[in-house]
Write a structure and sequence with these properties.
single chain, 193 residues, alpha/beta, Rossmann fold, two-stranded antiparallel ribbon, binds flavin mononucleotide
Length: 193
């Protein structure tokens, strides 16, 4: 039997008082209800990543800074990701892009899904940008997406998703499980396939 799929639920916002933390915990909770997924919340803020300060581009895989090595170890340990991202000025938050740019091979041949939120379009424009970034990093992004509305799914600062959002997230996790599992084979050395 295949081992559980390790899923990193990445909180894309680092702002004090951010809504993203509660959303990430919801994702982790739904993932925990099903067999086969071991989901962990990954808080970019906890890695204290400065604006990219590695001398070489990540594609070289020669990291100098301790914060980069810690971040690389964390991201390399997952089979798949759920990005929880708000929309900032019609794109993803700068700290999320910065954290993505720090690494290269650690992202390759993994699956990803997106849970977004925003004022008027559920963060959809941020996710469209993120899908382009994922393409460059050889991440297979699933179609199913959860786009949360700040007015319908939050009560002020409190996150209050209804059952329909649970169902949408479950579809996303179904797709993530399928692709995340399939891509494991690509990451195994040829002799082990
Ligand atoms: C710098 C900034 C830019 C924003 N731009 C947008 C935007 O373009 N579209 C949108 O729907 N919401 C926008 N918002 C509203 C955010 O989606 C909302 O504040 C959300 O709660 C931010 O996520 P966070 O609480 O996890 O940081 C913006 C918020 C900030 C702080």
């Amino acid at each position: 039997m295949e081992p559980e799929l390790a899923v990193g639920v990445i909180v894309g916002s680092v702002r004090p008082g951010r809504r993203g933390e509660a959303v990430a915990r919801w994702v982790q909770g739904r993932a925990a209800r099903r067999g086969g997924l071991a989901a962990e919340v990954v808080d970019i803020a906890a890695y204290n990543l400065p604006v990219l300060d590695e001398p070489l581009p990540a594609a070289y895989g020669r990291y100098e800074k301790p914060h980069t090595k810690a971040w690389a170890d964390a991201i390399a340990s997952f089979d798949a990701y759920v990005f929880v991202t708000p929309e900032y000025n019609r794109s993803i938050p700068g700290p999320l892009k910065n954290a993505i740019d720090y690494l290269y091979r650690e992202w390759h041949d993994k699956a990803a899904g997106f849970v977004s939120y925003g004022v008027d379009a559920g963060g959809a424009r941020a996710v469209e940008h993120l899908r382009v970034v994922m393409g460059e990093l050889q991440v297979a992004d699933v179609r199913a997406q959860v786009a949360l509305s700040l007015s319908a799914d939050f009560d002020g600062e409190d996150f209050t998703p209804g059952p329909e959002r649970d169902r949408e997230l479950d579809v996303l996790l179904d797709q993530l499980t399928a692709w995340g599992g399939a891509l494991r084979a690509l990451r195994r050395p040829a002799t082990a396939r």
